[in-house]
Design brief:
Layout (H helix, E strand, L loop, with lengths): L5 H14 L3 E4 L2 E4 L15 E2 L3 E5 L6 E6 L4 E7 L6 E6 L8 E2 L10 E9 L2 E8 L5 E7 L27 E8 L2 E9 L5 E8 L6 E11 L5 E8 L2 E9 L6 E7 L10 E5 L6 E4 L5 E6 L5 E8 L17
Antiparallel strand pairs: 1-2, 3-22, 4-22, 5-6, 6-7, 7-8, 9-10, 10-11, 12-13, 13-14, 14-15, 16-17, 17-18, 18-19, 20-21, 21-22
């Protein structure tokens, strides 16, 4: 029997292993995907972003929200700009078009305001945002058309305190529908110095119970900015900004079977650099990941590929109604 030299065998095995690895280029950087063995040999938990592009340029851009309005067939963006005392309002006929149209800005009594998030329930749009003061407050406004807003009450929804501090600095609200209740996620202090992702629950979008904690790294760094949650099948994806520390860093995506608890071990993707991401779906069903680039002077976006085998499963973010 012919003997094959050991060196040849090793080269052959190495060739096979390398052939199973996959690399992708993301925004000019090469990233190795993590391959996970499944029955049908699909790649799972290998979230990939397509080419990043700018949708609007301006001197300062940060936390924002994007939503589609079927009544005027336009996409609407509200986001932090300038001195943080107004939200810029942009509209577009297409989610991915370059150069959106500027509309009348949103203000609240000249106060400093942060991080708007907009949802629609029945025929009403709700905007949740942070009003900066001592203590910080979560407020809301309502609209029928995304252009004209009113505050049903001058009282904040909440301004949490505990036995250690009267200002838990709650900020960056995001509202998510779970069964017959609503969950509001936000960044907050659990005592007087440790940052966590907190949440409150409501049945009517106005009266909220809480707070409780769904993500805790026991850190004094506020690396839990701009929480955003999407359900796909039986899994809940949580994306956070300023990772690992504020103010710079990337975006981490965690995956859990509960909308009330994520662990650091649930991390499935880190995207760096990135900040204040929002996830949305276009009218054709494609997913997108938006970014505010801060001092880089623009709002950006990239197509999002989940690669988790759950594209046909139920999601909290269906294709928008035209």
């Amino acid at each position: 029997m012919m003997r094959i030299p050991l060196k040849v065998c090793l080269c052959f095995l190495l060739t096979i292993v390398l052939s199973q690895c996959k690399t992708v280029t993301i925004n000019g950087e090469v990233n190795d995907e993590e391959l996970v063995e499944t029955k049908n040999k699909q790649i799972t938990d290998s979230i990939v972003l397509g080419e990043m592009f700018t949708i609007y340029e301006l001197p300062y851009a940060y936390d924002h929200t994007i939503i589609y309005n079927s009544k005027d067939s336009k996409w609407h963006l509200y986001g932090i700009v300038a001195d943080n005392r107004q939200f810029i309002h942009l509209t577009a006929d297409s989610l991915t078009q370059r150069g959106w149209s500027k509309q009348k800005e949103f203000r609240y009594k000249g106060q400093e305001i942060w991080a708007p998030h907009i949802i629609k329930n029945a025929d009403t749009f709700y905007m949740y945002y942070t009003s900066i003061g001592v203590p910080r407050q979560i407020r809301y406004a309502v609209s029928k058309d995304l252009y004209n807003w009113e505050h049903p009450t001058e009282e904040p929804l909440f301004a949490y305190s505990n036995e250690i501090t009267n200002n838990q600095k709650n900020k960056d609200p995001m509202v998510f529908k779970h069964g017959d209740i609503w969950i509001m996620y936000f960044s907050m202090l659990k005592d007087d110095k440790h940052w966590v992702v907190g949440y409150s629950t409501s049945k009517d979008l106005i009266n909220w119970e809480g707070p409780k904690i769904c993500f805790d790294e026991h850190t004094e760094n506020p690396g839990v900015e701009s929480p955003f949650v999407v359900k796909r099948g039986e899994y809940y994806y949580l994306t956070l900004s300023a990772r690992p520390t504020w103010p710079y860093g990337g975006q981490d995506i965690f995956k859990s079977k509960s909308p009330f608890l994520w662990q650091t071990s649930d991390l499935v993707k880190r995207i760096n650099p990135w900040h204040a991401a929002e996830i949305m779906r276009d009218l054709d069903g494609k997913w997108y990941y938006s970014r505010s680039s801060g001092n880089q002077h623009d709002f950006r976006m990239a197509e999002l590929f989940w690669n988790d085998g759950l594209d046909e499963e139920e999601t909290s973010m269906p294709v928008p109604n035209r």
